[in-house]
């Protein structure tokens, strides 16, 4: 029989901000908060610096060709977070987006290609960034 659980708040019993979830096979537990993405964005640098969709992003600054800084709405706890990046450019299929710097309040990324335009920074029509870590 299927069940539906409707709640507004989850709070840990031992530590309010920590909820353990039992994994497959009942042998391990995962901390729910540690596994959640704390920031993500889908950003277009070519067609007018458009944010298609995002979470926890208050602003985007177009720093220079291929480089942008994304400011968090809610800061991270530290700079040792994990960023997963990717990108796409219609005429350049070999493009990489990488984290170039970050602090607790923002992250900067750079789109770079080694094909088509030579070895250079390029604006891309899709920059995808997801950040995992602890919020302040």
Describe the structure.
The chain is built from no helices and eleven strands. By secondary structure, the chain is mainly β. 0% of the residues lie in helices and 49% in strands.
Primary descriptors:
about 140 residues; 4-stranded antiparallel sheet; elongated; 11 strands
Topology:
Layout (H helix, E strand, L loop, with lengths): L19 E3 L6 E3 L5 E8 L5 E6 L1 E8 L2 E6 L9 E7 L6 E8 L3 E8 L6 E2 L4 E7 L4
Antiparallel strand pairs: 1-2, 3-4, 3-11, 5-6, 6-9, 7-11, 8-9, 9-10
Residues in helix, %: under 10%
Number of helical regions: 0
Radius of gyration: 18 Å
Q: What fraction strand?
A: over 45%
Task: Look at the helices and sheets and give the structural class.
Answer: mainly beta
| Overall 3D shape | elongated
Mean pLDDT: 84
In N-to-C order, the SSE pattern is EEEEEEEEEEE
- In angstroms, what separates the terminal alpha carbons? 40 Å
Indicate the low-confidence ranges by residue numbers: none
Structure at a glance:
By secondary structure, the protein is an all-beta fold. The chain has strands at residues 20-22, 29-31, 37-44, 50-55, 57-64, 67-72, 82-88, 95-102, 106-113, 120-121, 126-132. Strands 5, 6, 8, 9 and 10 form a five-stranded antiparallel sheet that branches. A four-stranded antiparallel sheet has the order 4-3-11-7, with no helix packed on it.
């Amino acid at each position: 029989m299927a069940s539906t659980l409707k709640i507004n708040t989850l709070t840990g019993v031992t530590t309010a901000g920590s909820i353990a979830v039992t994994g497959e096979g009942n042998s391990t537990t995962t901390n729910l908060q540690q596994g959640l993405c704390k920031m993500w964005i889908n950003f277009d640098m070519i067609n007018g610096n458009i944010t298609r969709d995002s979470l926890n992003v208050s602003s985007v600054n177009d720093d220079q060709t291929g480089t942008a800084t994304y400011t968090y709405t809610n800061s991270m706890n530290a700079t040792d977070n994990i960023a997963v990046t990717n990108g796409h450019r219609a005429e350049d299929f070999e493009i990489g987006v990488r984290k170039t710097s970050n602090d607790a309040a923002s992250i900067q990324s750079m789109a770079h290609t080694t094909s088509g335009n030579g070895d250079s920074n390029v604006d891309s029509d899709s920059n995808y960034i997801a950040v995992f870590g602890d919020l302040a």
